[in-house]
Design brief:
Shape: elongated
Number of strands: 2
Mean pLDDT: 79
Radius of gyration: 33 Å
Structural class: mainly alpha
Strand content: under 5%
Low-confidence stretches: 1-8, 25-32, 616-622, 624-686
Number of helices: 34
Helix content: 55-70%
Distance between the termini: 45 Å
């Protein structure tokens, strides 16, 4: 299914490009739009097309090829016209030649024997006086993925790599990468890698950027790994010189390659950053993020705090500017900023207002802004943040309201001095009597109680007043935990728990487990009044329940209470482990790896590429450390051409099954968020 989906996507991309190309050709020829070629409903037109293709008049022949391309674009099989179309390749008309080449790229794989008929024309075109035709021939030969044609491509490609025209050279550099994907051994044996490497010193910046792009792509799939593309002092200066003059996508390729380079010391890192800094002002967001990636990685080598502060001031405005783009670009920028804030929170420490949600922001943008607000919250700006979160809690989007209420609780856990202010805001929200707001408030207050025990218990009475409104399992479980934990301070704790006991069989397993533990806690604190109640709960848990977890816990409690009540107290009433602030959830080693992949899919998923791309994945060297012995991790599957096959039902979608990462620091990345959130969401423990 994944392969089929990938194939469908490739076909759609090809169709779209074909339509654009045909329209452009028609517009360029002065004939207006070519949409008429896509409106025919005639059947049995193959014979007519064959006759038109054989017409000696150039205009008639061009019209016929356009009809063939249009039919091919909408999905009709016109492969039986292969020979007739190929015969049209012998022409000096560039427009017609482009159309024939487009047809060849599509059908050469299904007609490899016939495709060889066009080889002589390709070779001839690579020697044409017109550089556009020379480049077109090389580009087309690289796109025809047929092994039989590859051997004929070598000599023309060798000449074009040394062509006097920079347009031909830059096209040839990309062709080497395509050829490597088809037959890597041939490229290495023919010395094409060295020729592309020599192009890094080319006088034309576009040739340099295409050479960088080709070498970077080859190094990702080659067994030689980084040996294919090693940046030394000489090539570094040439790349930096080309950076200011090449196109925006050329700049992205060069910056991404610079991010893989490890400067020898802090002085060299500062020098490179100084050359890269002007890219922060670029209009293309990809260039900005790639420049940020280089700067953040090199900052690890800079020891001067004054230099770092100056760089922080330069980096903040471009990142803020990204948030004035379209919502989709905002989302990508926010996911990247989320990582940047975890690595270097000082950069945007004074820009928290930028992340306040607007009324017309899409929900996915609001959620990301909320996460970054929590990460940037400090004692200096917490009052602003709380006012904003309180405002969000009155909005109409239920999920956003829930996340906003939880964010208030996370601020309390993160900032001890602001905890009381957070509690007051939560109490104000409880007074609104909005059901889902009250339930979320109860959940986060339980977490605050765990973080700061014996400090804010005076609000328990207010919580108990809203007991009847709780109907969600997590909220019920949180309230039951609070009652059990502070049973000695709640006069009618037994009555409150009995109200839950009436519907014990209908509750979810998590609520039943909390009910069992809370009842045992209450019994250990007030045994005389609750003996019957604890027996009833233990009976329900051990004899009437089908849940093995509930039965096991019930039997453990029963045996503890019957054999050694003091031991039961030590176990059940033991001090709870403290919960931690979960604002910075990523393991430092994972964060460092993700920083090297800023402005890629990895920075959106917040997962290393190896977790959602099957095949060979290059390990990125970290600054200050030696190169990895194993530069690749290889799975049994082939490299996928479509990274989206990894699956993304949402921003945190789980990827497909894969081999466990070799680095111990990665732990179980797929369960990372759940694992970190577990202490805060857990119950009272056994």
């Amino acid at each position: 299914n994944k392969r089929r989906a990938s194939g469908v996507q490739c076909t759609m991309d090809f169709v779209e490009k074909s339509i654009q190309k045909v329209n452009q050709l028609g517009a360029g020829g002065g004939g207006g739009t070519d949409s008429k070629y896509f409106q025919t409903t005639k059947k049995g037109e193959i014979h007519e097309l064959r006759e038109e293709l054989a017409n000696p008049k150039m205009e008639k022949k061009k019209e016929a090829v356009k009809k063939v391309i249009a039919a091919m674009t909408v999905g009709k099989d016109v492969s039986m016209l292969f020979t007739d179309v190929v015969n049209c390749i012998q022409t000096v008309n560039i427009e017609l030649k482009k159309l024939v080449y487009l047809y060849l790229i599509n059908y050469a794989k299904s007609q490899p024997d016939l495709a060889i008929l066009a080889v002589n024309t390709f070779v001839k075109d690579t020697q044409d006086v017109n550089p556009l035709i020379r480049a077109l021939a090389v580009r087309t030969m690289g796109c025809i993925r047929v092994d039989k044609i590859v051997e004929y491509l070598c000599e023309p490609l060798r000449k074009c790599l040394k062509d006097e025209d920079p347009y031909v050279r830059k096209t040839s550099a990309v062709c080497v990468a395509k050829l490597y994907d088809i037959n890597g051994e041939l490229v290495e044996d023919q010395g094409f890698l060295d020729m592309v490497y020599d192009l890094l010193g080319d006088s034309n910046p576009m040739v340099v950027s295409n050479a960088v792009a080709a070498l970077a792509e080859i190094s990702e799939t080659s067994e030689l790994g980084q040996k294919v593309f090693q940046i030394n002092t000489s090539t570094l200066q040439k790349m930096l010189a080309a950076l200011n003059e090449c196109t925006e996508w050329g700049q992205v390729f060069i910056l991404d390659s610079l991010a893989l380079y490890c400067p020898s010391d802090g002085r060299e890192a500062e020098s490179i950053i100084e050359r890269v800094t002007p890219r922060l002002q670029h209009a293309n967001s990809a260039v900005v993020l790639s420049a940020v990636k280089v700067m953040i990685k090199y900052m690890d080598l800079i020891t001067s705090q004054d230099t770092l502060k100056a760089l922080y001031k330069k980096m903040a405005p471009p990142l803020v500017t990204l948030l004035s783009s379209e919502p989709e670009i905002q989302y990508v920028a926010l996911r990247n900023i989320n990582l940047i804030v975890q690595k270097r929170p000082t950069i945007l420490a004074h820009e928290i207002k930028v992340f306040f949600s607007k009324y017309n922001d899409p929900i996915y943008v609001k959620m990301e802004k909320l996460e970054i607000m929590i990460k940037l919250a400090s004692e200096r700006n917490v009052d602003q943040v709380l006012m904003e979160l309180k405002e969000y809690a009155t909005e109409v989007d239920v999920e956003f309201v829930r996340r906003s209420v939880r964010a208030i609780g996370r601020c309390a856990i993160k900032l001890e001095r602001a905890a009381e202010r957070c509690i007051n805001v939560l109490l104000e929200l409880i007074q609104t009597k909005v059901n889902y707001v009250v339930q979320e408030a109860v959940i986060v207050i339980k977490d605050i109680f765990r973080k700061f025990p014996n400090r804010y218990e005076s609000i328990i009475g207010t919580l108990c007043e809203n007991l009847d409104t709780l109907d969600e399992p997590e909220a019920k479980g949180s309230m039951i935990w609070i009652i059990g934990e502070y049973a000695e301070r709640i006069d009618n704790a037994d009555e409150l728990l009995e109200s839950f006991l009436e519907s014990f069989d209908d509750e979810t397993a998590s609520v039943q487990l909390q009910m069992l533990t809370a009842t045992v806690k209450l019994f250990l604190k007030r045994p005389a009044e609750t003996q019957k109640m604890v027996q009833d709960v233990l009976t329900l848990a051990t004899q009437d329940s089908d849940n093995p977890d509930l039965r096991d816990r019930g039997y453990i409690y029963w045996r503890l209470l019957s054999t050694d009540p003091e031991a039961a107290k030590q176990v059940v009433l033991a001090e709870k482990p403290n919960i931690n602030d979960d604002s910075f959830t990523l393991d430092p080693s994972v964060l460092d790896e993700l920083i090297t992949h800023l402005s890629t899919l990895a920075s959106i998923y917040h997962k290393p590429p190896s977790t959602f791309i099957t095949g060979r994945t290059r390990m990125v060297p970290t600054l200050g450390g030696g190169a990895h012995d194993d530069e690749y991790e290889e799975s049994d599957a082939n490299i996928t051409s479509d990274m989206m096959d990894g699956g993304m039902g949402g921003a945190q979608a789980a990827p497909p099954a894969m081999p466990a990462p070799s680095a111990g620091g990665l732990a179980d990345l797929l369960g990372l968020d759940d694992e970190i959130a577990a202490p805060a969401a857990g119950g009272g423990g056994v």
